[in-house]
Fold this sequence. Notes:
Elements lengths: L9 E2 L4 H30 L3 H32 L1 E4 L3 E6 L5 E6 L3 E7 L2 H5 L2 E8 L3 E8 H15 L7
Antiparallel strand pairs: 1-2, 2-3, 3-4, 5-6, 6-7
Amino acid sequence: MYSKIQPPTKKISKESVKVWRMTEAITNLIILAVLGSLLFVDDYFTWKEWIGWILNGLIVLSFFHAIWSIFIEPILLQKYWRYDVNEEFIQTKRGAWSETHELIPMTKVQSVKLNQGPFLRKYNLYSLSIGTMGDSHDIPAIPEKEAYELRDKIAHFAKIKEVDE
Length: 165
């Protein structure tokens, strides 16, 4: 009747943890700087007392969020993210608590794109973006050689042609 589809087994790079930590650290520093500036402005202009309480609460919440997003979340993301590609499907599986298993049929793939920002470039990693008719699916932090091979493999299976402009 139906063939059993095996779950994906390929992992993303361990270097992804470093990339996500740097990104989250910068983001959280900016958020804390903005909240700290607002707290200074609150004290300087003597705004209503409740504004100071809210800002202090947001700073405390931001501190706990920073601990989660810098030290714990990147490890869990790397540990539970899996992907695989065959002639029929692209599979992704992610999530520690709420597991998401996605099957993308090759017949629906319209584009394949490699992305590399400054932090990914430092560790020679790429993020693969797969475009379908209604959505875009990402596989983050793949080593360069594997990313190019995967892009070419998906393009071949999906019969995507290069357009000369």
